[in-house]
Input
Amino acid sequence: MKTVIRTKLKHIFVVAAFVGILSAGIYIFNTVSEAYTEQSGTVTSISGGAVNVRSGAGTTFEKVAAAPFGQAVTVIDETTASDGYKWYNIKYNSVTGTITGWMRSDYILITPVSGDPSTDADFEAYLNAQGFPESYRVYLRDLHAKHPNWVFRAQNTGLDWNTVINEESKLGTNLVSSSSPSSWKSTQDGAYNWDTGKWIGMDTSNWVAASEGIVKYFMDPRNFLVDGSSILQFESLSFANTQNKTGIANILSGSFMATDNYYRIFYEAGFDNNISPYHLASRSLQEVGYNGSGSSSGTYSGYEGFYNFFNIGSTPNADGSGALVNGLIRAKKEGWTSPELSIKGGAKFVGNNYIYKGQNTLYYQKFNVVYSGGYGLYRHQYMTNIQAPTSESTKMKKAYTDFNASAITFIIPVYKNMPDIAAEKPTKDGSPNNVLASLVVDGYSLTPYFEKFTEDYSLIVPSDVNSVQIGATAVATSGASIKGVGVKELQPGENKIDIQCTAENGDVRNYTITIIRTVEEINPGAEGENDPDGEDDTADNFVIESNYKIDEFISGIEPGTSSEQLILNIKVAGYNVKVTDSSNAIKTGKIMTGDSVQIYKDNVLVKEYPVVIYGDVTGDGNIDSLDLLYIKRHTLNIKALSGIYVNAADTNKSNDGIINGLDLLYIKRHVLDIKKIVQ
Output
């Protein structure tokens, strides 16, 4: 007979030693055999989903279970199946009991044991296979050198980093303590009252919405791939055979739960539900505190004899009250009439609602980027405190008597389009209030009217005004400073004046006032006016083919149209078309009010049509604030328009020769991109 001896690395075949004794025609062989060396491993998959466990080595065998991603397993045997793949015989604990079966070896990541001769090249190859970005590797290499027994697994979420941050930054999704630095606190709508300078409580006044900057910091895995407790937020929360009551005792040390009975309860709750008892102990401690709370005392008035060690269902009412009572209502409904029933019932809740759904790390329970069921990604999150994963990690570290040498598996998320450098922790403090309460120019009205979040304004002053007085006040009565106010000299034409409001924390908001000081009017129609020159338009008969409107003048031309485009769009059979400017020179470039379209027959001018672009009152081809000024001066009888420029100013196309506030409004809406003037 031939005995197969298996070790961790390969099959070793021991050839039977032939004794060479011939007795009664029978050959007798002695054999030497050796038991399989068990190994620890973790279930892995490219998709991050569960992997089938079968009754035999091969896909043709019956499925007996589906091991979740990150499940810790013990490999008790191995063989090469008929499909050519190596298969592992595994066992692990689940909620239904101990599962034993077979799984293909490439779905199990073997945990290296102390002393394994893994080289730097091996580790680099492993990082490549896992798909870790280079920006992660600088941290992982350092950790691997210090902790060769640690296993790092990448989970590619398939999610865009910027999308994730945008979703997790939505109001109320993540909270920070109201005593946090101001740069940790959001100023988005509903999070901060700019009029009072105070943050709005989300879960009582002690918790406020987290800023996008601090969300980036706590969500960036690279910030926690360090030699310390915070990396434990990526530890797999499945039960592992290496976990024991001693580790639980270390976590609960100094708390009201530091007794053998609680150590037993947490261990059994973890074992029975295939959840890390270290996680259960630290989570409970996080929820009820070292001295316990009303939810764990069993003596809360009206709910005596009921316990909720995980604060399950302890959501606050709309006014921020009632969280504790709501949790005890849940405890009463579940029948948690003892600490043991509460802890074991709570463990089942955590398993069914989070760990078995793929949220099997502290990180994933806080930031749901893996479970799309229920309300979807970013919604099914155990806690709102953005610091909870790092805080609980500190408690979990106490479980390890030899943290540096322990064999721990970490499941680390990877996102698409991440920046090359890890997000920095915001550090600025002080009030962020940098809005103005008022902004005035003495003697004039701003357009539009002042509003603290509107940052751009304009006004027009006469040509004889060479300075203005600007004043402003800040909403923040202390800590904010204002620059750019006082007397400002004005040059003819456009003047841009910046007023800056700087908050106590250094954030700057810039307001701009554009002041147009009018210049001595040069009437654009006074000389060389492009009225028809009296040529006899009956000298010849012709037909103009064009989409433009042609009467006494030609209109319907969009601003920015070139002379070349204009000529191409006007067809006069048997005639030549030319475009000239106001000085009668051949026109090139952009068409503007005051240009002319001329019709020639045998080099004889037979008809001329002035060009009108509604709103281009100055004749420069643009519709802007200077045109506003020309119309305003016309309506105030400061300087009248004449000729074709009156037609250009008639933006509402009343064709009555009267220019009024309605025409002014049409240009203002055009300039502000509210509604364009129809040509």
About this structure: The longest strand covers residues 151-160.
